Amino acid sequence: MLHSANPSTSAPSTKLIFAPTGGSNDPGHATQYKLGALEKEHLDPSPTAQFHKWFQEATAAQVYQPETVTLATASLPDGKPSARMVFMKELDDRGFVIYSNWETSRKSKDVASNPQAALTFWWREVERQVRVEGQVERLTDEESQVYYDTRIRGSRIGAWASPQSQVLESREELVTRVEEVEKRFEGKDKIPVPPFWGGIRVIPEVVEFWQGRESRLHDRFRYTKVTEGWKVERLSP
C-alpha cells in the first residue's frame, strides 16, 4: 500500500523541480515521441529474437551504448529494492547476461535472498524501451572465464582488487589493493576469473516492448511465458 502525507500535519513541500519539459522546443510541454509505431504483427513470436532485432536497429541508429541497462533487485524479507546501471554483455535464447561481483555487492545480497531481477533498457534515439522480469541463475566459472578473458588487463585486475560496495577509507586503499593483485599476477597473461565474480543470467518470464507515441499514447506489448510458449498482449499506455 502506498502511504501519502497527511495534509493536516505536513508542511507544504518546496518543489525543487516541477514539470520539466525534457528538451522540448515547446515551452511548458514535454517532448512528443513521433519516430515510430508498433503493431502486434510486427513482433517476433520470441521475445529474445524481438529484442535482438531491436538491439540491431538501436545499434544502426547509433544509440549510445545500447547495452546499458538498469538492473533492479530486491532483498528479502524486507523487500527493499535497489537499482543500478550496468552493461548487458550477452544474449542467448535463455536470457540476458550481466557480469559483476557476486559476493560483496548490494545486488549479490539481494539475489542471494531473492533470485529475481528486472531489467530496463532505454534507447532515446529511437524512442524505445524494453523491460524484462525473471528468475536469476549464476553462470559457471568456465562460462564466465570466456567473457572475462575479453576484458582489458586493468579490468581483470580490478575485479580481483575491489570488494565491490564495501566501505573504503581512501582512494589510496584501493590503489594499494590493485598493486598487490598486479604483483600476484605479474608476468601472467592468463588471469583466472575470481570465484566471487562472474555472470548471472536473467531468464525472462515477462518482457515488454515500448514504442513512444504522441500525447503519451505509447504502443506497449507484453510477452508472458506460458506452458506452450509466449502470450503477447497489447497494454494500455
TrEMBL record:
Annotated SUPFAM superfamilies: FMN-binding split barrel (SSF50475)
Domain called Pyridoxine 5'-phosphate oxidase dimerisation C-terminal: residue spans: 197-237
GO molecular-function terms, A-Z: FMN binding; pyridoxamine phosphate oxidase activity
InterPro entries, alphabetized: Pyridox_Oxase, Pyridox_Oxase_CS, Pyridox_Oxase_N, Pyridoxamine_oxidase_dimer_C, Split_barrel_FMN-bd
Keywords from the named record: Flavoprotein, FMN, Oxidoreductase
Domain Pyridoxamine 5'-phosphate oxidase N-terminal span(s) in chain numbering: 56-183
Pfam families: PNP_phzG_C, PNPOx_N
Protein name: pyridoxal 5'-phosphate synthase
Organism: Periconia macrospinosa
